[in-house]
Amino acid sequence: MQKTSDVITGKPVISATGLFTPADSISNEELVESFNRYVELFNSRNAEAIASGEIEALQPSSVEFIEKASGIKARHVMTKQPVLDPEIMAPRWEERPNEELSILAEIGVKACRDALERAGRDVKDVDAVLCAASNMQRPYPAMAVEIQDALGIDGFGFDMNVACSSATFGIQTATDYIRAGNAKSVLVVSPEITSGHLNWRDRDSHFIFGDVATAVLVEDEAVAPAQHWDILGTKLKTVFSNNIRNNFGFLNRAHPETADMPDKLFVQEGRKVFKEVVPMVAQMIIDEATRLEIDPQGLRRLWLHQANAGMNRLIAHRVLGHEANADESPTVLDTYGNTSSAGSIIAFHLNSEDLQVGDTGLICSFGAGYSAGTVFVRKVG
Ligand code: COA
């Protein structure tokens, strides 16, 4: 067990990361079969209106398109059967009483426990929990405070939502607490039950997201385990865009007639996102590397946001100056899909142990907002 000390350096490091992966997984084949059954049902139930031109017939989805357009082959979900049921196509579970741990907190706690165990960290020595995620279960009490309570942490917690960039924004917030001496051990937890915001009936996006939870333990170097990752620098950026949007919220009550419209779930202009975000993020990485006096072409590994394999290929190429291989820019899209803010953390968690002491890499997120965050790290230990 790591002993905490009163000596604080103000130098932030990543002590460990944690991961919770739901047991259920849906392959593209299963997903497309279910989607296409829904399309058949819809078209036959609305045959007359389609024939009269009143509504348009729905088009089937395809496994080949999904894999080619996104690189996604499967995704984990909290509940598989209802998502695949063409009459439901949404997650379903029993509503829990307030006395019971809520489902989002439950998976967040699991990811946190994994990170704490890996760091050998006693919860008594953790000061704060930041729940940084796109898909909060409720507005209050904060999910972070419930997770803090379930873990038995004496300190404070709050929620923050910067969509797919929530985790990197959380890491920067945690590093600022460490730098200021306001905390020496901070959990940044990203429970992403994306199956709730995804419109499983929308052909353009039904394949994109998956459920997961990650945790990052950001600590003062003075209390961190011998093997850790120095945080060399963090940089955040936001630029307003409507190209990825979700209009769900309390104020939908002001317009009850539109409460069930598809824009109350995830919607995007995928092509525009692709075109606008790739150059913005690649430039941001290069500028920040330059500021930190790091040669971007010398980066040992990029743990990029996991939204689309093509975007990652282009960003990695611009940063490294050549086509990146799977070792330089690993993907988890094939088995996890897009897990919003958790994606780059899963990539880091599953693909960082083999790096050598002294190796420098980059955790990078980008998504709705637009929002983007970079966290340059170097292995120590
Ligand atoms: N099955 C089969 N064909 C499909 C389909 C599906 N499920 N969905 C769309 N298509 C078809 C369209 O009808 C269109 O056909 P057309 O050219 O004959 O009109 C064609 O495929 C291209 O559609 P488009 O939406 O332009 O595909 P794309 O190649 O741009 O890929 C995304 C779509 C969404 C996967 C891609 O744009 C993307 O990932 N962008 C970035 C998204 C992102 O990172 N978002 C962040 C979220 S946090």
Helix content: 25-40%
Which geometry do the CA atoms define? globular
Unreliably modeled segments: none
**What value does the average pLDDT take?**
96
Which compounds are bound in this model? coenzyme A
Which strand-content bin applies to the residues?
A: 15-25%
CATH class division of the domain at 229-380: Alpha Beta
What strand order characterises the main sheet?
5-4-6-7-1-8-13-12-11
Identify the CATH architecture of the domain at 229-380. Answer: 3-Layer(aba) Sandwich
Biggest β-sheet strands, sense, barrel: 9 strands, mixed
CATH superfamily of the domain at 229-380: Thiolase/Chalcone synthase
Number of helices: 11
Q: Tally of extended strands?
A: 13
The H-and-E topology, N to C, reads as EEHHHEHHEHEHEEEEEHEHHHEE
User: SS-based structural class?
Assistant: alpha+beta
Task: Could you tell me the CATH topology label of the domain at 229-380.
Answer: Peroxisomal Thiolase, Chain A, domain 1
Radius of gyration: 21 Å
- The end-to-end distance, rounded to whole angstroms, is 16 Å
Domain Beta-ketoacyl-[acyl-carrier-protein] synthase III C-terminal: 293-378
Enzyme class: transferase
Organism: Altererythrobacter epoxidivorans
GO molecular function, one term: 3-oxoacyl-[acyl-carrier-protein] synthase activity
Summary, kept brief:
This protein is an alpha+beta fold and about 375 residues long.
Notes on the structure:
The protein has eleven helices and 13 strands. By secondary structure, it is of the alpha+beta class. It has a domain at 229-380: Thiolase/Chalcone synthase (Peroxisomal Thiolase, Chain A, domain 1). The strands form three sheets. Strands 5-4-6-7-1-8-13-12-11 form a nine-stranded mixed sheet, sandwiched between helices. Helix 5 crosses helix 6 and helix 8 (270-291) runs parallel beside helix 9. The longest helix is centred in the C-terminal third of the chain and has 22 residues, at 270-291. The radius of gyration is 21 Å and the shape is globular. The chain binds coenzyme A. Coenzyme A (COA) is lined by residues 61-62, 65-66, 69-70, 164, 203-204, 244, 268, 270-271, 273-274, 307-308, 311, 338, 367-368.
